[in-house]
C-alpha cells in the first residue's frame, strides 16, 4: 500500500505539473497601485530586433544611458527575447500581469491581438497626436480610433538580395518577372548553383513567402481580412494562387535541398557564404549582408512579379513597434521614453548603427549613402501593406508556416495547401470567436 | 533502564492505535504540498475548461476533441509509447552486460549514463545540427557510400517523429541502465552462484534469475517512461522543431498543443480542455499499470 500511495503521489505531481501552465493563462488579474511621480521609476523593456537589425542592442543601451542621465529617477532594464520566445513569453507575462512595462510588437495583428486581449494601453492616450502623426505605418496598429503601439523602425518586407558576381558567372540575368525567375532557377541549377537560399524549419519564412508572393494576387488588404472572416475563401484563385507559385519554385528546384532542416537565418547565411545566387532577407538586415558580401557584389529588388494586382512588384512596408503594457505603473514615463527614441539625434544614431530606417517621417534621408539602401528606401516609400500582419497568428502558423514546410518538402501540392488553409481558417472562426468579431470591425477600416 | 523500556514500548502502542490510517499520516506532508502547490491550479484548470464567456459549457471539450491537430498530437504520444519496450529491452541488455563485468565497464557505464544528465535543450540543439540534411550524420553516410540512406531526418514528415523517438531513447536509456544495474548489484551473489552451479548459462540465468529479480524496477521504469512519452516530451519537441511541432504537424504532441493554444493562440479555455483530457489519459495509464502490477504481483514483495 505504501508503494502504491507513493507512486500515486509521484504520478499526481507529474501530471499536475504539466497542467499548471494552461491554468495560469486564465488566472484573474489585479490592478496595481497608481504611480507616484516623485518616486524612483523602474521600467522593464522586453524587446526583439537585434536579430534583424544588428547593432540595435548597442543603440538601445546607449539610448537608455542618455535617457537616464536626463531623468535620474528613471532606470530602464532591457531583456532581449529570442525569435521563438518573443510572443509566448509576453503571453505568459500578460496572463500573470507581470513583466515588461514596454513591450516590442511586430505590426498589425501582432500588435492588435494583444490590444484586443487587454494587454496594452493605447500609446495614443500618452503620446500626443502631433507627435504620433510622424510615426510611419501607424495605421496598421490602429483600432477603434486609437493607436495601440508606436512604430520604432521600418521593416521593408522583404527584399530579394542577389549576388551579381554569382549571376554573372553563370551568365544569368537578374530575374524581375516570375517566368524569368523560373528560367533563372533552371539555368543556375544546370551549372550546379543553388538559385535561392532559405530555411523554413522554424516556420517564419512561410509567413514571409505568403506575404511577398501572395500579395501580388489580391486587389486590396480587405480581401485578406474578408477571407479570414469567411466572406471570401482561401481556396479562391486570388488567395490560392500563391501556393501554385510556391509549388513552381519547388518544382524548378529553386531552393537549397536542405531548406526544411535550416532555420530562417541559417538559410540566409548560405547566400552570404556564396553558396546561392539569391535570398530573401529582412530589409533592416540589408546593410549587414551588403557589408558582409561587398557593396559591388550585391543587388536588391522586390520579389519578381507574377500578379497584376496593385501590390505586384512592390515591397511590403511595415513598422516594428513598441507598446505600453496594461499593467505598468508608469505609462506616461514609458511613453516619454518611446518619444525619446524618436529624437532626431537618436534616429540618426539608430540608422548609422543598424542600417534600418527609423519609422518616422522626420528622419533625415540624406544619411542614406549605401546604394542598396537607397533602392530599398525608394521601394519601401512606394510599398504595399505587409500581408502577414493582417491574418490571425494561428492561421499564419498552422497554414503558412506548416503548409509551406510540407509543400516545399514535397509532401503536399498547392491545391492541398490551399484546402488546408481554408480548413484551418474555418476552424479558427469557430475557436477564436472574440477575435473574429474584432477582425470584422478591423476590416471596415480598410474598405 | 526504566525510561528506555517506556521509550521502546510507547511508539509501538501508538502505532497500534493508528491502525490503517498510519500510512496516510506518513504521507500527509506530501499530500499537503501537492494540494497547496497544485490543488488550486487543478481547480482553475477544470473550471477554465468548463467555461466560456462566463457560462458553464462542455463546448470546449467538443471543440478540442474535433480538432484534427489535437487528435494528431494524441496519436503521436501513443506512437511514442512504442519507445517504452525498446527502452526496457535495451536497458536490460546493457545493464546485464555491464553487470557481467564487460571490459572497461566503468567507462561504459559512465558513457551510457552521460546522456541522461545532459540538459534536454543541449541535446535538442546538438541533434538538430547533426541531423540536418547536410549535417554530420548524412555526411558520414555519404562518405561511406550510403548516400541513399541519407534523409532529411527532422525535415521530412515521414521521418521526423521516429527520429525524435530515437533521440528520446538515446537520452532516457541511461536512467534505465543505472536503475537496473543498481538493483542487480543489490542481489546477493550466491543467488547467481547457485544458478550457475545448477548449470544455467547466460540466457537461462538471466531469464530465470535476473529478470524476476528486476521485475519491480522494470515496472517502475515502464511507468515513469510511459508518463514521459505521454506527457513529458515537450522539451524535446520544442527545442528540435523551434516550438513548431513540424514539419507540418509531424511532431506535434499534446503538451505542445496545450502550450501553443494557451500562449500563442490565446485560447486558455481550449488549452485547459486539452490539458484535462491529457490528465485523464495519464491517470488511466497509471491505473492500468497499477492493475497489471497488482494482478501479476510484480514488485509487491519488495
Integer average pLDDT of chain B? 89
Low-confidence stretches of chain B: 1-8
The average pLDDT score of chain A comes to 91
Q: Estimate what percentage of residues of chain B fall within beta strands.
A: under 5%
Q: Count the helices of chain B. How many?
A: 14
Shape of chain B: flat
| Largest pleated sheet of chain B | 2 strands, antiparallel
Q: How far is the first residue's CA from the last residue's CA of chain A?
A: 69 Å
Strand content of chain A: 5-15%
- Helix % of chain A is 40-55%
Order of helices and strands of chain B: HHEEHHHHHHHHHHHH
Count the E strands of chain B: 2
Structural class of chain A: alpha/beta
Outline the structure in words.
The complex is a heterodimer of chains A (447) and B (302). Chain A is built from 18 helices and 12 strands. Chain A has helices spanning 2-24, 56-70, 86-96, 109-116, 129-132, 164-169, 178-190, 204-214, 221-229, 237-251, 264-272, 286-293, 331-341, 344-354, 371-381, 393-408, 414-431, 433-444, and strands at residues 41-47, 74-80, 102-105, 120-121, 142-143, 146-147, 149-157, 160-163, 194-197, 276-280, 298-301, 316-325. In chain A, β5 (142-143) and β6 (146-147) form a beta hairpin. The longest helix of chain A has 23 residues, at 2-24. Chain B is mainly alpha-helical and 302 residues long. Helices cover 76% and strands 1% of the residues of chain B. Chain B has a two-stranded antiparallel sheet. Chain B is flat, with a radius of gyration of 24 Å. The two termini of chain B are 36 Å apart. Mean pLDDT of chain B is 89; it is low at 1-8. Chains A and B meet through α1, α3, α16 and α17 of A and α2, α11, α13 and α14 of B.
Amino acid at each position: 500500500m505504501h508503494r502504491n500511495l507513493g507512486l500515486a503521489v509521484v504520478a499526481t505531481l507529474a501530471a499536475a505539473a504539466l497542467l499548471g501552465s494552461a491554468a495560469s493563462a486564465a488566472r484573474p488579474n489585479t490592478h496595481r497601485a497608481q504611480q507616484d511621480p516623485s518616486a524612483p521609476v523602474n521600467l522593464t523593456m522586453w524587446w526583439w530586433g537585434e536579430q534583424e537589425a544588428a547593432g540595435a542592442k548597442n543603440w538601445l543601451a546607449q539610448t537608455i544611458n542618455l535617457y537616464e542621465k536626463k531623468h535620474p529617477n528613471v532606470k530602464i532594464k532591457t531583456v532581449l527575447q529570442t525569435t521563438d520566445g518573443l510572443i509566448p513569453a509576453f503571453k505568459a507575462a500578460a496572463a500573470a500581469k507581470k513583466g515588461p512595462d514596454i513591450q516590442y510588437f511586430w505590426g498589425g495583428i501582432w500588435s492588435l491581438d494583444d490590444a484586443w486581449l487587454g494587454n496594452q494601453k493605447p500609446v495614443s492616450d500618452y503620446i500626443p497626436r502631433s507627435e504620433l502623426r510622424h510615426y510611419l505605418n501607424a495605421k496598421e496598429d490602429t483600432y477603434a480610433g486609437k493607436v495601440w503601439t508606436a512604430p520604432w523602425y521600418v521593416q521593408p518586407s522583404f527584399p530579394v538580395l542577389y549576388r551579381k558576381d554569382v549571376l554573372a558567372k553563370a551568365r544569368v540575368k537578374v530575374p524581375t518577372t516570375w517566368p524569368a525567375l523560373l528560367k533563372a532557377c533552371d539555368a543556375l541549377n544546370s551549372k550546379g548553383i543553388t538559385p535561392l537560399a532559405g530555411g523554413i524549419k522554424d516556420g517564419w519564412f512561410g509567413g514571409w513567402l505568403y506575404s511577398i508572393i501572395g500579395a501580388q494576387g489580391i486587389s486590396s488588404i480587405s480581401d485578406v481580412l474578408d477571407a479570414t472572416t469567411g466572406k471570401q475563401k482561401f481556396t479562391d484563385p486570388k488567395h490560392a494562387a500563391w501556393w501554385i507559385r510556391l509549388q513552381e519554385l519547388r518544382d524548378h528546384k529553386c531552393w537549397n535541398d536542405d531548406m526544411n532542416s535550416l532555420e530562417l537565418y541559417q538559410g540566409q547565411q548560405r547566400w552570404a557564404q556564396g553558396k546561392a545566387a539569391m535570398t530573401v532577407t529582412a530589409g533592416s538586415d540589408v546593410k549587414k549582408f551588403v557589408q558582409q558580401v561587398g557593396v559591388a557584389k550585391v543587388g536588391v529588388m522586390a520579389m519578381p512579379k507574377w500578379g497584376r494586382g496593385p501590390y505586384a512588384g512592390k515591397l511590403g512596408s511595415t513598422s516594428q513597434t513598441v507598446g505600453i503594457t496594461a499593467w505598468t505603473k508608469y505609462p506616461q514615463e514609458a511613453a516619454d521614453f518611446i518619444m525619446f527614441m524618436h529624437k532626431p539625434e537618436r534616429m540618426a544614431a539608430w540608422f548609422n548603427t543598424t542600417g534600418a530606417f527609423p519609422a518616422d517621417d522626420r528622419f533625415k534621408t540624406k544619411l542614406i549613402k549605401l546604394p542598396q539602401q537607397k533602392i530599398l528606401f525608394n521601394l519601401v516609400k512606394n510599398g504595399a501593406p505587409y500581408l502577414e500582419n493582417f491574418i490571425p497568428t494561428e492561421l499564419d502558423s498552422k497554414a503558412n508556416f506548416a503548409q509551406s514546410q510540407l509543400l516545399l518538402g514535397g509532401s503536399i501540392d498547392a491545391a492541398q495547401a490551399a484546402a488546408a488553409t481554408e480548413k484551418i481558417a474555418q476552424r479558427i472562426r469557430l475557436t477564436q470567436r472574440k477575435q473574429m468579431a474584432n477582425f470584422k470591425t478591423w476590416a471596415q477600416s480598410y474598405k | 533502564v526504566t525510561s528506555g523500556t517506556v521509550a521502546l514500548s510507547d511508539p509501538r502502542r501508538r502505532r497500534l492505535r493508528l491502525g490503517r490510517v498510519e500510512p496516510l499520516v506518513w504521507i500527509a506532508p506530501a499530500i499537503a504540498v501537492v494540494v497547496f502547490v497544485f490543488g488550486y491550479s487543478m481547480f482553475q484548470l477544470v473550471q477554465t475548461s468548463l467555461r466560456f464567456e462566463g457560462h458553464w459549457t462542455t463546448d470546449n471539450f467538443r471543440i478540442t476533441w474535433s480538432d484534427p491537430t489535437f487528435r494528431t498530437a494524441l496519436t503521436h504520444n501513443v506512437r511514442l509509447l512504442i519507445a517504452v519496450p525498446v527502452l526496457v529491452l535495451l536497458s536490460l541488455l546493457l545493464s546485464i552486460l555491464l553487470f557481467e563485468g564487460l571490459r572497461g565497464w566503468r567507462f561504459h557505464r559512465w558513457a551510457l549514463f552521460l546522456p541522461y544528465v545532459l540538459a534536454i535543450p543541449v541535446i535538442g540543439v546538438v541533434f538538430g545540427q547533426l541531423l540536418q540534411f547536410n549535417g554530420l550524420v548524412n555526411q558520414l553516410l555519404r562518405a561511406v557510400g550510403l548516400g541513399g540512406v541519407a534523409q532529411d531526418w527532422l525535415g521530412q514528415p515521414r521521418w521526423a517523429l521516429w527520429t525524435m523517438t530515437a533521440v528520446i531513447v538515446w537520452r532516457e536509456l541511461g536512467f534505465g541502465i543505472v536503475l537496473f544495474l543498481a538493483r542487480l548489484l543489490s542481489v546477493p551473489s550466491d543467488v547467481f552462484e547457485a544458478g550457475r552451479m545448477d548449470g544455467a548459462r547466460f540466457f537461462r540465468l538471466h531469464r530465470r534469475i535476473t529478470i524476476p529479480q528486476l521485475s519491480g524496477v522494470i515496472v517502475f521504469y515502464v511507468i515513469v517512461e510511459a508518463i514521459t512519452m505521454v506527457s513529458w516530451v515537450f522539451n524535446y519537441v520544442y527545442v528540435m522543431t523551434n516550438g513548431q511541432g513540424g514539419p507540418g504537424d509531424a511532431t506535434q504532441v499534446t503538451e505542445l498543443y496545450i502550450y501553443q493554444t494557451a500562449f500563442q493562440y490565446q485560447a486558455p479555455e481550449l488549452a485547459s480542455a486539452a490539458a484535462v483530457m491529457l490528465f485523464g489519459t495519464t491517470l488511466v495509464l497509471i491505473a492500468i499499470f497499477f492493475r497489471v502490477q497488482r494482478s501479476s504481483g510484480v514488485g509487491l514483495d519488495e
